[in-house]
Amino acid sequence: MSTHLNKIVATTRETVAANKARVPVSELERRAALHRPRGWANALSVRSACGPAVIAELKKASPSKGLIRADFNVEHLARQYETSGAAALSVLTDEPYFQGSLRNLELASAAVAIPCLRKDFTIDEYQIVEARAHRGDAILLIAAALTSEEMHRFTHTAHAIDLDVLIEVHTGEELDRVLALDEAPDAIGVNNRNLKTFAVRLETSLELAVRIPADVVRVAESGIATAADMVRLREAGFDAFLIGESLMRQPDPGAALSTLLAEAVSSIPVLHESAQ
């Protein structure tokens, strides 16, 4: 685990401990029962069958880039993304490093019909119940931050309460561990950002694509900014594309997403022909 990730995970443990002291799991379970998960991975599969499936991310800031978007009306952005063709949303809930919150997840999810991923550093089962209690439909597990036993246990816990699981890898070794799990995730994401240097290489996804089974949703993450990027990754076998910063930096993220999707569809001959 990188030094930076170690620091974030340590902070997350403190946050979880504070949340546990403030809100008992029984209260979370009561709230969770009020939300019916909407099938995050299935939404991506359905959209991917007829065109690029974009997971539009609500991301205000990051440790490496600082503040990304000052004008951050969560409900407005979520609706913009849905109207502009996003298949699903990803909502950052880490506060210390990404200026996110569980409230943002709740607001975004309530504003749209498309399903939402809680994007955070999951290190405790409490956070999984917390995700559904705040209207999340899926959780993120980061292989670099977890043991194989933790990934298996957290996947099982999420599935038991009808949440989908996206496991994120950065290397072939991490992918090996995910593929060896007894209980498979619903989606496997390849993050093109190097955790140690923060450098982004789309080649990371391209190199690992062939090894990801076809029976899980294959997600490319980070560094996707153009239709050409999406076409290249789709041709390599990816079903969905998690896009955050490049959209968040646009004056009108929804319009930027619409343009990106239109350009991608027109660049894929099979999709273009079927649309005629």
UniProtKB/TrEMBL annotation:
Organism: Acidicapsa dinghuensis
PANTHER family: INDOLE-3-GLYCEROL-PHOSPHATE SYNTHASE, TRYPTOPHAN BIOSYNTHESIS PROTEIN
Pathway terms, separated by semicolons: Amino-acid biosynthesis; L-tryptophan biosynthesis; L-tryptophan from chorismate: step 4/5
Keyword field: Amino-acid biosynthesis, Aromatic amino acid biosynthesis, Decarboxylase, Lyase, Tryptophan biosynthesis
Database matches in InterPro entries: Aldolase_TIM, Indole-3-glycerol_P_synth, Indole-3-glycerol_P_synth_dom, Indole-3-GlycerolPSynthase_CS, RibuloseP-bd_barrel
Family: Belongs to the TrpC family.
Residues annotated as domain Indole-3-glycerol phosphate synthase: 5-259
Entries under Gene3D superfamilies matching the protein: Aldolase class I (3.20.20.70)
Domain of life, per lineage: Bacteria
Transmembrane segments: none
MF (Gene Ontology): indole-3-glycerol-phosphate synthase activity
HAMAP family: IGPS_B
Reaction catalyzed: 1-(2-carboxyphenylamino)-1-deoxy-D-ribulose 5-phosphate + H(+) = (1S,2R)-1-C-(indol-3-yl)glycerol 3-phosphate + CO2 + H2O
EC class (word): lyase
Listed name of the protein: Indole-3-glycerol phosphate synthase
EC number: 4.1.1.48
Keyword Lyase: yes
